[in-house]
Write a structure and sequence with these properties.
The complex is a heterodimer. By secondary structure, chain A is an alpha/beta fold. In chain A, 40% of the residues lie in helices and 24% in strands. Chain A has four helices and seven strands. In chain A, helix 3 links the parallel strand 6 and strand 7. By secondary structure, chain B is an alpha+beta fold. In chain B, strands 1-2-3-4-6-5 form a six-stranded antiparallel β-sheet, covered by helices on one side. Chain B is globular, with a radius of gyration of 16 Å. Classes of the chains: A alpha/beta, B alpha+beta. The interface between A and B is medium-sized, with 31 and 33 residues.
Chain lengths: 114, 160
């Protein structure tokens, strides 16, 4: 599992460079995320653009990262593929997580808000 | 035909005369991932939309991962057997394994996220069975001749 993280203003953008977050990569994903969010700024956007698919294990890993980050630092998602969107919609996870169409949209939302 | 990945694919006819594809799949994360890719490649794209294929892949990923993680939790040498019969407008799947039975002999319920709770308050598990129930039809679980048996149907190119 490869991640790339970049601080843009007050926002940490983490890009997942793998094609999938699934039973085979969920634990690595969680461990790598734990490392990068440790001293991250308030706002963290997870860019999933390179990710083609996610399964229930991957979904669980994302929830577990959200638990590590706690109530005051909500994790926002960006760049979901159609298959990943389907998984979020069918599990209703799309109703409890902030999802941006792209990383650019996520950062744009930030600059308008500030 | 069999390759270095250990996946064996056979083409033939079911006892009812339907076109059948049978697969033997190593019960590992890598084996199931490759098998799903191969199965998606076998589907006739003229009869299936991209969304149909996504749904089929979601069902297969959840069904196969469940077998790897639970039925074969304490075994490295597990093999998953699958038949896919053409059943227009869709495909009829039967997945079997000789791993340990489902607890209580039936499929657990599964659940969605709880819209009344915040993201960090959601459960970490339980979404897999909900997902497979959403995308598959006529899903059952049986224990037959010391094997777990999971039949289900995936609609392709038709109203669901």
């Amino acid at each position: 599992m490869q991640l790339q993280s970049e601080t843009i203003g007050d926002c940490l953008v983490v890009t997942i460079l793998d094609e999938r977050i699934d039973a085979g990569t969920a634990i690595q994903f969680k461990d790598e995320m734990r490392k990068v969010i440790g001293d991250a700024p308030q706002r963290v956007v997870l860019d999933l653009k390179p990710v083609d698919s996610i399964d229930s294990s991957g979904l669980g890993a994302i929830v577990s990262v959200m638990k590590i980050m706690g109530p005051d630092r909500p994790l926002e998602l960006a760049g979901l593929s159609t298959k990943v969107q389907t998984v979020f919609r069918l599990t209703r996870m799309d109703s409890v997580v902030t999802i941006h169409s792209s990383r650019e949209a996520a950062l744009g939302a930030y600059s308008r808000a500030s | 035909m069999g390759g270095d990945d250990g996946i064996v694919i056979r083409r033939g006819t079911s006892p009812e005369g339907a076109m059948r594809t049978a697969l033997s799949i190593p019960a590992t994360n890598e084996g199931t991932r490759l098998a799903i890719k191969k199965i998606a490649g076998l589907v006739d794209r003229s009869t299936a939309s991209g969304d149909d294929i996504d749904r089929m892949e979601i069902a297969l990923a959840e069904a196969l991962n469940n077998i790897v993680e639970h039925a074969f939790a304490d075994r490295e040498d597990g093999v998953i057997e699958m038949t896919i019969d053409a059943a227009p407008p869709g495909l009829h799947f039967v997945i079997t394994d000789d791993g340990v039975p489902m607890p209580a002999g039936r499929l657990p319920g599964g659940h969605t996220a709880n819209p009344d709770r915040r993201a960090h308050e959601q459960e970490e598990g339980g979404y897999g069975l909900h997902l497979i129930r959403e995308v598959a039809r006529k899903l059952r679980y049986e224990r037959v001749d010391d094997r777990n048996r999971l039949p289900f149907r995936i609609a392709l190119g038709a109203t669901r």
